[in-house]
Amino acid sequence: MSNLNDELRHLAEDGARQARPLAVDEVIQRGDRRRRRTIAWLLQQRARPGGLASPATPGRRFPRWVPPLAAAVVVIAVVVGAATISSAIHGREPAEQRPAASTMYVEYLALGRGRSVVIPVNTATNTPGKPIQANGADGGLAITPDGKRIYFTGNDEVVPVSTASNRPGKPVQVPGVASNFVMVMNPDGKTVYCVAFMDYDTIIPARMAIGTVGKPIDVSLNDSPPVITFTPDGKTAYVGTKGDTVTPINTATNTPGKPIHVGINPADIAITPDGKTAYVTGFRGDKVVPVSTVTNTPGQPIRIGADAEQIAITPNGKTVYVLAYGGTIVPVSTATNTPGQPIHISVNAAARIIFTPDGKTAYIAGLDGTIIPLSTVSNRLGKPIRISGAGPAVSIVITPDGKTVYVAALNKIVPISTATNKPGKPIRVPYGMPGGAVITP
Amino acid sequence: MDREEFTSLYGASFPRLVGQLYAMTGDRAEAQDAVQEAFVRAWAHRGRIDAEHGAEAWVRITAWRIAASRWRRAREGTRLMLLAARPDRVAGPGPERVAFVEALRQVPAAQRRALVLYHVVDLTVEQIAAETGVPPGTVKARLARGRAALTPYLRESAAPVGD
Question: For burial by CB atoms within 10 Å, which of A196, A202, A310, B101 has the most?
Fold first, then answer.
């Protein structure tokens, strides 16, 4: 060998000669599949109560490859208006019971301005308030269980906003993630887990309650955006990890436990309301794997006859609904872990399923912008609801009283009466693409 | 970046990038895996990538991050055992090359990356600084330290680097 220059070049040439690339069609196929999963995941996660930051580039709410229609996220926000208040302003008059006026927060990309805004909407009057500037970032939203603060992501930071004043507080710095990161909130509302979009191996816990970040959690995530689901008590997070495993993370110490081999590449994880069982779907195969969160051991896989991806559990925890690619929904009894008859829906791909508080009705969101009611009692489908300009209907949240659904679409937010399943008068907003949505209790 | 551009980029740069990653990592299989995965991501995120400017660098940076992430796990031991078991771990035709590769593996990853970007990819110090996200002075220091570490394994002294 001669010198460092030559030696390194020889080494590189040696490696290049023996490179064995896959066929480009295979690479493109894998890339397309990754993209589809990412889009579906993004759109789905944005309306979850835990919230989610966008992995898009700064100043852009969605990656450029998201088609305009796909970027028109349908977000249906919860109106937690069931709580009533005493009418203190009426002095000695008997307390009048009436629904509290919740505030819904919807994130929108301010088109042409390269930044996001968060719009508060009074759900009693269905009127939008003054937008909260999101500091040039393209964050998602999360709301604490007590409804006192919302969180959104900025550049290298997570920003808290008081819902009393709608003013941003001091951000918590999350170094190294830029604006391309995912944020998932622990149900305790005190910590958010941040994952940089291009990093598959590190979760950074941002402790919003005390304004600091914790030591990064070193786990081998199976995909980006990651699959992260917390137990209802917030004590454990189950994360999709490489090697067809899910890994429990103790949120008190932020230490990962031993990976649990589920035999499928995790696509979604749902945990029963009692916190005892996690159901895991995978990108490969047609099965769902129940995992005991008590023993952290997998149970017998449940065959559902189609590629399972998204998954949801009824509020009473008795039934798991599995959304399979190609327009099939399979109910699975959690008592016996046996699948019921598949239900075929009119949309090719369903991205999300949610339930009314009484669990009797499910709303299935299709990637084609259709929302389909389903009776969980009879497993019969209702008439599809179509929202013009809504794009993929992928995120649904129903009000606690089960009466209203809000759909955020391009330039508008549409309320839907669940009694009639008909869209109401749209709430106009001067912004283009909607993102996540949350609402105060 | 459209399909045609991607196909062209893939065909033209895959072997070259594997070679570069191999020199950076010292592990051929690791380099192949990382570059392959980086191209999958490149297609998935093609809207972000400018086909004419920086596409190859994007793939190289992504592949490096993938490989670097795996090293973190390797520190925990398991992966090191797997790597040690790979039959193609030792590259090159002769003992000198083997010694060089082994020496390269002992050099800190950031220094290896800087050395390859400078000597193989022919980037300037400023370009390396931009690609790796550190000041030019840090790049120079990495190049100097990396070279110093590898010099004992070279027959002839190398040309000054990093200036």
Answer: A310
Q: How many Cα neighbours within 13 Å face the side chain of A64?
A: 12
What angle separates helix A4-17 from helix B136-150, to the nearest 10 degrees? Answer: 90
Calpha distance A308→A187 (Å, rounded): 26
Residue A198: what pLDDT?
Answer: 56
CATH superfamily of A23-88+102-439: YVTN repeat-like/Quinoprotein amine dehydrogenase (2.130.10.10)
pLDDT digits (tens, 9 = 90+) for A257-299: 999 999 988 888 999 999 999 999 987 668 999 999 999 999 9
Is-contact A84 A100, C-beta < 8 A?
yes
Amino acid code (one letter) for B27: D
CA atoms within 13 A on the CB side of A194: 35
The 10 Å Cβ neighbour count of residue A103 is 21
Mean pLDDT of A46-71: 35
**Contact check, Cβ <8 Å, A21/B100:** no
Within 8 A by CB and 6+ apart from A21, the residues are A27, B10, B14, B15, B36, B39
For the residues of A5-42, what is the DSSP string, one character each? Answer: HHHHHHHHHHHHHT--PPPHHHHHHHHHHHHHHHHHHH
Residue A201 pLDDT more than 60? yes
* pLDDT tens readout for residues A307-333: 777 889 999 999 999 987 667 889 999
Peptide bond into A168 cis (omega under 30): no
Question: How many residues comprise chain A?
Answer: 441
The CATH 1.10.10.10 portion of chain B extends over 91-163
Q: Chain A residues contacting B, CB < 8 Å?
A: 1-5, 7-22, 24, 27-28, 30-32, 34-35, 38, 57, 63-66, 198-202, 218, 220
Q: Tell which of A1, A3, A8 to mutate to test the B interface (max B CBs under 10 Å).
A: A8
CATH topology (fold) of B91-163: Arc Repressor Mutant, subunit A (1.10.10)
DSSP string, A112-150: TTTEEEEEEEETTTTEE-PPEE-TT----EEE-TTSSEE
Q: Locate the domains of chain A by residue range.
A: 23-88+102-439
Measure B136 CA to nearest chain A CA, in Å: 19
Structural contact between residues A238 and A229, judged by C-beta atoms closer than 8 angstroms? yes
Q: How many CB atoms lie within 10 A of CB B147?
A: 24
Q: For position B155, what pLDDT does the model report?
A: 55
Mean pLDDT of A17-21: 86
